[in-house]
Amino acid sequence: MTKKSQYMSNPVQEAKNLCQKADEFMKKSAYKEAISNYLSALMLKRDNAKSYFNLGVCYKHMKNYSKAIHYLEKSIKLDEENYDTYFELGICHLLNGIPCGAIKNFIKAIQLNPENPDAILQLGISHELCEEYDMALMIYQKLIENSPEYIKAYDHKSSLLMKMEHYKEASVILNKIMQIDPTYYNAYAGIGICLDKLGKKSEAQRYYRKFLLNKPESSQASFVKTRIQKLKEQNHTSKILSLV
Questions:
Q1: Rounded distance between C-alpha atoms, residue 105 and residue 16, angstroms
Q2: For residue 9, is pLDDT > 90?
Q3: Taking the model in full, what pTM does it have?
């Protein structure tokens, strides 16, 4: 029997083999090769929700979000009860700059798996990106209440409060982060910024220094060093003026 006749005589098995090969490519982050094999498998067996899902994930990794959304939506048509598909679809909408389109997918993901905090967090982020700040804050707070050890919820809530210039409230949340995880050193920088904005310059410097001591190579380090220097100069100028 020729290879062609084998291919035609057992398309289901051939599709399975192609999917297995695609899975291996996907594990190696060889997404182009994985896509080629998944598409070939779907030519033989078009009702495979997992292949459409994996195609979507491959295209997401390749930053082709429109195609990722297209294949994830095809996967949903075949399997409407898969949490991961709705979650990935929401993420792709966010990455594609359509946060309001992500909301319905995260809501569906939450309905399917209400115990997973990740979809709830992403729902809050989606509302925040749609500039629905009150809704986002409510979601972050609810997540904090339901999952009190979930640092990301505190982090996003404090960042949003800072964006809204609610520095006192933000500093309270950041201090709670430090109580839960004293090694979450980015909170030191956040507290420093809040105190700085509130006019508490010496306290701000103290937290800035704590941050630099623990995260000297951080992307925020340059800003923090510059801010400490400015505060020193301001303090020095104030002392001179007080003597005049």
A1: 29
A2: no
A3: 0.87
